[in-house]
Structures are given as structure tokens and as C-alpha cells.
Amino acid sequence: MFKMAIVEKFFDSKEALNAELSASLEKSLVAGIEADGRATLLVSGGSSPAPAYKHLSGLALPWHDIDVAMVDERWVDATHEKSNEVFIKETLLQGYAKEANFITMKNSALSAVQGTAQCEAEYQKLKQPFDVTILGMGPDGHTASLFPHADGLAHGLTTKELVCAINAMQSEVTGDITERMTLSLNGILNSKVIKLLISGQEKLDVYMKAKEKADIDATPVSAVLHQDNVLVEVYWAP
Length: 238
Ligand code: 6PG
What we know:
Keywords: Hydrolase. The chain is an alpha/beta fold. It has helices at residues 14-36, 50-57, 84-91, 112-124, 153-158, 185-188, 201-212, 221-225; strands at residues 6-10, 39-43, 66-70, 72-74, 101-103, 132-136, 163-167, 179-183, 193-199, 231-237. The chain has eight helices and ten strands. It is globular. The mean pLDDT is 97.
């Protein structure tokens, strides 16, 4: 049995979850700036974090001292409607938060594999450990772009680099775009705290199973749960 460092924050409503999450993100960023002069926020796509991003964008924080970097990205143009970059710009990097320094994953390389070295070099410039990393989880047990049985998953779980290229097995969850850049497991765990956001009964069941049994190839989120180096706060609402 692996050790775990999980705190479950289960709420009655998404509103209550978003209020606590927003306040706690603000606290982490302010603490990071106070301690080191800069803070690093790693952000995921997905519907769950959007309300907290919108809330944060309206806070008068010293955003020029905050680096916002991506947890994962589809290997598509930065203007593509499915790119997480577009999503982060539309939700978080508005209002006051426009002043943040945004580090993206997609670069001009023809493939994610070929783009890895440049992306890694950019991520190595960030303050480490990151102050806070926001993860989502899919109904297939993926987190970041660590997808079940993906091409590149074994490397992503073991590499000491922060980022890696993944080619997921196509499914309803991945859609057509299976080529991704993502934080590796090492990159995910290179954070003072991880916020794992999940909602609904189906995902709660997936999470509970992943917590019970570490079948990492089938349910990669297990790798984040079955370790005790970094605190994982699991945010759930119906
Ligand atoms: C993707 C999605 C995906 C998403 C999770 C959680 O890149 O395929 O962004 O990873 O983050 O499926 O989604 P929700 O936040 O909508 O639950």
C-alpha cells in the first residue's frame, strides 16, 4: 500500500466549492509572492476551474509577479477553439490578471515530441516548486494529459523532466486531438500543493476507485494520489 497525502474538501454545491477554492488560490499566490517575490500558478482546462479563474481575474493582486503556466495542451494552434491556451486567456487572463506572465506549451515544432525540449526549457525557468497546481480529472481516470494506456505514459510517469509529449488513445474523452504536451508526473508533483477538481457522482466513483487501488496505467490519476510528498486537496461538488 502506498502512502497518501490527501485532504478531501467535499461541498454541497459548486458555489461553495468555488468560494473556498478562489480564496485558497488567492492565499497561495500571496504567500508565494511574500516568500519569494514571485508566485507560480499551474492551470488546467476543463469546466471545473472556470468560475475560480473568473473570480481570480477580478482580484487586484500584483499579477506582474505571477507566472501562470499550463498543465497540459492539445498540440494545436494557439488560436484553435479546443486549445487550453484560448480557454485560459478567456477565463483567467482577463481584468487585473491580464498583467500575469503567461507561459504556454504549444510552440512552432511540428509535433509535441519535437517541441518537448523547448517547452521543458521554458518550464525550467519557472520558480520551483510551483506554488499551486490545479488539476482536473476525466471519467477515464486521466489527469493533466496523462491518459490511460497512452503512448508516452510510461515515460511521463518516470521522467525527471517537467513536461512530456503524450499521444492518447482516441476516445470520447480525448476527442480527435490526441497529441498533447503535459506536465509529467514529476512536474505535477513539483508543487507546494495540488488542487484536484472533480464534480458529479460518476467522477466521484472514479476517484474513489483510483484512491483504493493504484492501477496507474489504467487510471493515471492514481499516481498523483498514491504518494505522500505533496499535499493533494480534492475538491468535489455534486
Ligand atoms: C482535456 C480536458 C480535460 C479536463 C478534464 C476535467 O484537455 O481533455 O481539459 O483534461 O480537464 O476532463 O474536465 P472538467 O473540469 O470539465 O471536469
